Amino acid sequence: MHRRHFILSAAALGAAQPLWAAATVKAGPKAALIVVDVQNCFVDGGTLPVKGGAEVVPVINKLAGGFENIVITQDWHTPGHASFASSHPGKKPFETTQLSYGTQVLWPDHCVQGSEDASLLKDLKLPKAQVIVRKGFHQHVDSYSAFQEADRKTGTGLGGYLKERGIKTVFVTGLATDFCVAWTAIDARKAGFETYVIEDATRAIDLNGSLAKAWKDMQAKGVKRIQSQDMAAA
Ligand SMILES: [Zn+2]
Predict the structure, then answer these.
(1) CA of 77 to the centre of ligand 1 (A)
(2) Domain-embedded: residue 41
(3) Catalytic-labelled residue, pool 75, 111, 135, 178
(4) CB contact at 8 A, 66 and 233
(5) Residue 187 appears among annotated catalytic residues
(6) Mean pLDDT over residues 7-26, rounded?
(7) Count: domains in the chain
(8) Which residues have CB less than 5 Å away from ligand 1 (the ion)?
(9) Hey, which end of the chain has fewer CB within 10 Å, N or C?
C-alpha cells in the first residue's frame, strides 16, 4: 500500500493522533511521567492480573530516562475495601454495585496495604521518581484516578504537587489503560495539564468494551494518544 494511503486510513480508523506532522514529542523540564499502578497485583501471579501487564516495565524504564520529573501511583486498599466483591454478599468479581457515589465495578480482593501483592514490580527502575501517590485507601471510596477519588470530590493532592513544581504536561503510562490510566489522564486534563497517554506503555483489562470507551472518553477530553517511539530520544 502507498504510504500516504496507509496514513489516511489509519487516521480514518481513529488510530493514534496524527503525530506524523510533529515528528517527535519532547518531554522537557516542565513535563512529568506518571507511572500508574505497576504493581504485583496487576500482573501474572497477582490478584487482579492485566493481560501482558509486566510488558510495560521495559517500555517505562526506557521512557523514564527522558524525564526529570516522575510520579508513581500505587493502588493501596484497606482489607475489606468497598471495591472488593467479597465485601458485598452475593456479588462476584466484575459485577457492579451502587455505592454512595454511583456505580462501582467490583473487583477481586487486590493491592491490600502493605502486602507483597501491592508492591511495585521489582524490575521497575525509576531511581528519579520523586513521589508515590497511594490511592484507594479510604474504606468506602475507590480511586482509579491519581488526582481525585471516585466520589469525584476528594483530591489526592497530586494536581497541587505538580503545579507547585511548575509542571505543565503529563505523560501517563501503566495499568490499566481503561481504568486507572484513563481516569488519571482525564483528570489531568481537568486539572489543566496538557496530557498524553503513551499507549504501548499501558495494558488494558477491557471489561465489556471498557477499552474502546476509555479511548473515546479520553480523546473527547483532549488527551493525546501516542506511542513510545513518538517520544524524542532522551
Ligand atoms: Zn483497586
Answers:
(1) 7
(2) yes
(3) 135
(4) yes
(5) no
(6) 57
(7) 1
(8) 75, 136
(9) N
Give the range of the structural domain holding residue 172, as residue numbers without chain letter. Answer: 27-78+112-230
Based on the residue annotation, tell me whether 135 is a catalytic residue of this protein: yes
Q: What is the pTM of this model?
A: 0.89
Residue 104 in any domain: the answer is no
Q: Is residue 94 part of a domain?
A: no
pLDDT category of residue 223 using cuts at 50, 70 and 90? very high
**Are the C-beta atoms of residues 60 and 173 closer than 8 Å to each other?**
yes
Ligand 1 midpoint to CA 111 (Å): 7
Which among 61, 34, 37, 74 has a CA at the least distance from the CA of 195?
Answer: 34
CATH code (residue 141) = 3.40.50.850
For the question of residue 37 being annotated catalytic, the response is: yes
Q: What is the pLDDT of residues 121-153, one digit of tens each?
A: 999 999 999 999 999 999 999 999 999 999 999
Q: Could you tell me the pLDDT band of residue 15, with boundaries at 50, 70 and 90?
A: low
CA distances, 222 to each of 78, 90, 96 (Å) = 34, 39, 28
pLDDT for 81 equals: 98
Q: Cα(78) to centroid of ligand 1, in Å?
A: 10
Residue 4 in domain: no
